[in-house]
């Protein structure tokens, strides 16, 4: 398991270093996961993670972007 600081740093690269945008994407994706969406990453012991942690991992792997979330909600 990678440290959360490393995951966050990697995820920041996908939002051009904008922490506000990252928090927005994490919040929107965590809400989708809470509402029943399936995670896009393969994580062992998925029950041990919070939705925000899973969302951050998805962003860090490039599987989720702000554009994709905004379009999905329209």
UniProtKB/TrEMBL annotation:
Gene3D superfamilies on file: 3.90.940.10
Claim: Signal is one of the keywords in the record: no
Pfam entry (one): RNA_pol_Rpb6
InterPro entries, alphabetized: DNA-dir_RNA_pol_omega, Pol_omega/Rpo6/RPB6, RPB6/omega-like_sf
Catalytic activity, as annotated: RNA(n) + a ribonucleoside 5'-triphosphate = RNA(n+1) + diphosphate
GO MF annotation: an example: DNA binding
EC number: 2.7.7.6
GO cellular component: DNA-directed RNA polymerase complex
Entry keyword set: DNA-directed RNA polymerase, Nucleotidyltransferase, Transcription, Transferase
BP terms from Gene Ontology: DNA-templated transcription
Signal peptide start-end: none
Similarity comment text for this entry: Belongs to the RNA polymerase subunit omega family.
Protein task: Promotes RNA polymerase assembly. Latches the N- and C-terminal regions of the beta' subunit thereby facilitating its interaction with the beta and alpha subunits.
Quaternary structure and partners: The RNAP catalytic core consists of 2 alpha, 1 beta, 1 beta' and 1 omega subunit. When a sigma factor is associated with the core the holoenzyme is formed, which can initiate transcription.
Protein name: DNA-directed RNA polymerase subunit omega
Native source organism of the sequence: Campylobacter ureolyticus ACS-301-V-Sch3b
Name of the gene encoding the protein in the UniProt record: rpoZ
């Amino acid at each position: 398991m990678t440290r959360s600081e490393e995951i966050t740093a990697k995820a920041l690269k996908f939002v051009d270093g904008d922490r506000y945008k990252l928090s927005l994407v994490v919040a929107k994706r965590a809400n989708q996961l809470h509402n029943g969406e399936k995670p896009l990453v393969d994580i062992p012991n998925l029950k041990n993670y919070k939705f925000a942690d899973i969302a951050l991992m998805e962003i860090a792997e490039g599987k989720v972007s702000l554009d994709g979330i905004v379009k999905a909600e329209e």
